[in-house]
Amino acid sequence: xLFLSLEKYLLGFSLVSRNFLFGHFVFGIGIFGMTLIPDxxxxxxxxxxxxxxxxxxxxxxFNQQGLIRTKEATGILIFVSEFERRVHILAxxxxxxxxxxxxxxxxxxGIIQGIRNDKAGHSVAxxxxxxxxxxxxxxxxxxxxxNELPNRPIH
Length: 155
Prior knowledge:
Elements: H1 2-9, H2 15-36, H3 38-44, H4 47-64, E1 76-81, E2 86-91, H5 93-96, H6 105-116, H7 120-138
Antiparallel strand pairs: 1-2
């Protein structure tokens, strides 16, 4: 019905103009639909592109929040991206020099599982606790290692 009404409205335009306007209308409806249905949008975007986008945004946030400016290079960020349904944990060079590569994968999987099970808050809190235990072995808190960063969520 909507398309027939639109076609009647466009009769006064040339065929090229009608096709152009109609194409933009359909494109606009598609974009509008994608904003209403995030699952559809996510499925139309390559997983590799989603992963790269989340990584770039995590690095950007890491830098903007000043996590890179700690004395011993011990900043760490848990980046949760709702739209992409991705979690990325970034640690500064001081941490990466002392922990084994891939050590945060368990926490990433746990947070993702928690999000899927509608227990995001609990899964993030558990990941923070586990990460704190790992980091305390290498960077015990005290006068030599003061907490230089606020421990708070960033929106």
